[in-house]
Amino acid sequence: MTQQHPPNASAAPFTLRLAQVDDVAAIEWLDTFGTSPHRAISRDVDKYFGSVDPSVHERNLIFLAELTPEADTAAPFRIVGKVELLLAPTMLISDVGYIKRVVVHPHWRKHGVARAMLEFVVQQAPLLGVRSLDLHVWEGNAAAVKLYESLGFALRHRELYLRLPLEAVTEATANVPPERIAPDEHA
Question: Which long-range contacts (CB under 8 A, 24 or more apart) does 97-103 make?
Fold first, then answer.
């Protein structure tokens, strides 16, 4: 699963390939450039490459865009983009793949990297038993929304993301009399 992306005037010369365990440091570095509001989620090797028991957990394939040797870069890694494809443990459960964590290094944005990676995933997905692809995108990420729509993704539904700050709950219950928190069983 490797593909050479032909360089042209607007695109960086890079190769698209499947990530290996040796790429974890570069993937973590690249993740720091993500624009998702959830990018600070900590991950380790098992999170990147799936569980040791694939019969229980999904499979996570990471596709990378890596600069070719002739491309000049001062960055610590030659990997300039990544996209993750989440698969069900078996296609008997679901034939829907889920695209997540599309990240391109800021210097290489607007060079066709994200488009090439996503086109590569779309090309590879049927070979993995996937019949359709889903993804979530932050509504405020207009460039990503435009890219996904240009590739044929269509809005299925909108959803709300809600959060309850627990310190607010803790402060609210701090002034509640103990009998209201743990009622007497005889009352």
Answer: 97/121, 97/125, 97/128, 97/130, 97/132, 97/133, 97/134, 98/133, 98/134, 98/135, 99/133, 99/134, 99/135, 100/135, 100/136, 101/31, 101/34, 101/36, 102/135, 102/144, 103/30, 103/31, 103/33, 103/34
Give the number of domains in the chain: 1
What range defines the domain where residue 58 resides? 2-158
Lowest mean pLDDT among 129-133, 165-169, 175-179, 182-186: 182-186
Q: Residue 170: inside a domain, yes or no?
A: no
Q: What percent of the chain has pLDDT over 90?
A: 32
Position 85 in a domain: yes
User: pLDDT tens digits for 8-52?
Assistant: 444 558 899 999 989 999 999 898 888 765 544 444 444 444 444
